[in-house]
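Reviewers asked in the last cycle whether our approach scales beyond single polypeptides. To address this, we selected a multi-component target totalling 329 residues and predicted its structure end to end. The input consisted of the following lines:
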Amino acid sequence: MERARGRKIDQLDHAVISMLCRDPQISNKAIAQQVGAAESTISNRIESLVNDRLIKLTVQQEVSATEFRRFGWIEIWCDIADIEAIAETISADDSVFSVTSFYQNPYLLVVAMARSLDELQDIHETVIGAVPGVRKTAMNASVGDMYIKSRLAVL
Amino acid sequence: MTLQRFDDLDRAIIDLLEADGRTSNRGIARELGVSETAIRKRLKRLSESGSISYGVIVDISMTPMEVFGWLTAEVHPQYLGEVFRSVSRLPECSLCARTTGQNNLVAHMYARDRKTMADTAEAIGKLPGVIDVAFRPSQRYFRHRPQLVSNPEQDAQPIIEIFSSEAGTKHLGK
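The resulting structure, written as structure tokens, was:
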């Protein structure tokens, strides 16, 4: 994996992140008390970790509360020279959950989300299928419940 | 658990909290021109129903994980439900689903090195009913929407175990 940022964190940053992971809603005051630092120090540290995109404090939505019912895994065969352009084009679509590239063909795996199997097939044919350079595809669709944790990401 | 579908106000609140999960109710109220009480009620309903959860997403550069990729498996249909639950519970698994096709199980996995990943794949291959397992290491992620989760209440492994004492050590300035 490529690692874009080499920013150093210290023991205090580490302690702050650990406490946030345990309880994302913990107050700066409570962190400050536990680590024995000033509340303003904690607030600055969190701001800097967020600005440096080392952590993101957010709310996450339960997929079943959204309109998405079906996920599809679409493998794409293409020329090595076209990987980036195809991936960028597809990533811009709202129905796309993730786009992964690999070292061998099929070079790309797109995970797409849809309200129904019909809509998923429509994305497959009209969105993915229309991207120049896509040579062939293969799609599998989700059946039943899914499990998604999403605690790590490239921020 | 009755999941709440989102209306326009819910979506507006979620958008603000997605950008900054520590925005105060007062801040949200001011931004949206709604009373703080209304915001508090909404958020209580949304989180108690499990429709949203507060989370910390950690950049992969902060963890000891070096290998990421997609695992697919062919599983005898009688065992598919059990294998799905077993793989979902693994701390190395961030996404798992049953799918159509010959390979009827797909999972996104990570590990600290190739050896650990190979061991995990081998262990999955030995689960009853598993016919074949393959793992493809990712080269790059062009997109990922970490704001979506599913069945998070199953989550027995808090992220703290990934971001453990030894995690992030490569960034510890000594």
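Residues 8-48 of chain B form a domain with the Arc Repressor Mutant, subunit A fold (CATH 1.10.10.10). We regard this as preliminary and will revisit it once experimental data from Aim 1 are available.
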